Amino acid sequence: MQHMLTECQHQWANVITSNVTNYGTLLADIAVAGITGACFVSFNYDTLFEQALPTIGVTIDSLESYITHPAYKVVKPHGSLNWSHELPRQGIVDLSGQPAKVARWLIAYAPEVSPSPAFTFFAKPVFALRPDTNPPDVLWPALALPIARKADFECPEPHMNAPDTCIPNVTKLLTIGWRGAEQHFLKLFAGKLPRTVSALVVGRDRKDAEEIAVSLKGAGLAGRFQSARGGFTESLRKEIPDFLAEQLPTRVSR
Known about the structure:
3-stranded parallel sheet; 9 helices; 15% strand
């Protein structure tokens, strides 16, 4: 799966779009709107969002850099194509083989291998064998299947702690293509978001967005929900920029 998704990303970014994505437009809209702090949560495995982050002055060059920027945090609960776990060399038949050969071995013996719990960051996805070690270290992809009732996350623990510091200060919530099916993640937010949050839900179309909004509210997410009329690309033309630029009433503590 890691190799397939990496190839898809390469084709999409370098061949089809010439590295121009909706993420760059979204981040530019955030900068224009004067939003000086945000916590981005992505359930995608690809690194297209990370590649667009320099638009707002963020560079991802280590695991720590996802959450150490003073204004912007990036959390990927299901892992990332460029993260891996190292494997002990003992018992692995052929460390000198091609990555595809090692990957086939890992798949065949998956129940018997025990990857290190530590995460290793790479600037670009590395498949099965780490090329900068001799002999090459064997790598296990840090990717979690998006199962609705899955209880574990596939990212460093400090990353999952980052939203806790952001949630009390959230004024706007923008969801794009997220159906809110990950119950383990929803529990982090349920009952914690300020009730004054303004939320915009973007789905495939308005009907899809309305269904997602109902699901999110049913899971305990508070706020004033709006449903975008179109998908991501269409919403970037007006609805998302207008939502980001919207001036919210000042909250008064009593």
